[in-house]
Fold this sequence. Notes:
Layout: H1 3-12, H2 16-26, E1 35-42, H3 50-53, E2 58-65, E3 68-77, H4 86-103, E4 116-122, E5 154-157, H5 162-166, H6 172-180, H7 185-198, H8 205-223, H9 236-245, H10 247-283, H11 288-295, H12 299-308, H13 315-319
Parallel strand pairs: 3-4, 4-5
Antiparallel strand pairs: 1-2, 2-3
Helix pairs in contact: 1-8, 6-7, 7-9, 10-12
Amino acid sequence: MDNTHDGAYKKLFSHPQMIRDLLTGFVAQSWVAELDFSTLAKLNGHYVSDDLRHRQDDLVWRVRHRGEWLYIYLLLEFQSSNDHWMALRMMVYVGLLYQDLIKSREIKRRDRLPPVFPLVIYNGMPSWTAPQRLSELISPLPGLKIFQPEQRYFVLDEGRSSARARKLPDNSVASLIELEGNSSPETMQEAVRRLRERLAGPEHASLRRAFTVWLNKVIIHKRLAKGQPIPENETLEEVESMLAERMEQWKREWERKGRAEGRAEGKQEGRTAVLARQLTLKFGTLPEPTRRRLSEASSDELDLWAERILFAENIGDVFR
């Protein structure tokens, strides 16, 4: 995903209201209710190590929990596929954060390290399936389990959170998920209206502006046909008006795109079924992992495997 999208998203999650809505709306754990959100603060650059400071997609917040600091390490993961090694990456990032807190004397010599809540926000396709525990990435060896690191992270998979988002009409993160999903023009307009009303107060001026920029640069940009000028809406009211003006045009484009995608999906499913049949006839019953791999394959992969099956001596030759 390009830097425009990443920057617009990061600006949104640089607002405390977004972090509060994220935790209270989508992290169903008891300790969230005990947080003192009046103390919520994004860390300045001097709190973060040089290694972390150059990670443009990461944000570190802290908030009081029963009088002690709790750190929230927020990683924005916007790519087309899962990162299998995310649990390892998170262990490294949290370790670097701890090192910097010690170096900056935020933690005294005999103090305990503060708790860190590692959280990944993912909006790619397919759904997030990467291991969320570091122990799942380490080969087991009897007797050594107690010596292995046990890092775990929480993931908010936007594609799997739409049902939850619809139950939270007063949550800004829910509005973001609803708008970023494949919403109809009417749904988008209604989501923007609710967002505008909820952020009407002067204390939300900065967040309103961040949402307006994000809608212009990301959401509206995706909906416009190639070559069309991107409108420069200055407020959420202007975004709402623009959506109303373009409603009928977008509805026609939406319906046409849906029909085209339906035809393409049907064709892809047919090719997958034919290849599965050919593999079964040549090599016997297919194991479940192979069937799953076929169902998730791209068009180019299906072409390649269809060629290989002609000369393959075993099923491994097809998928090597």
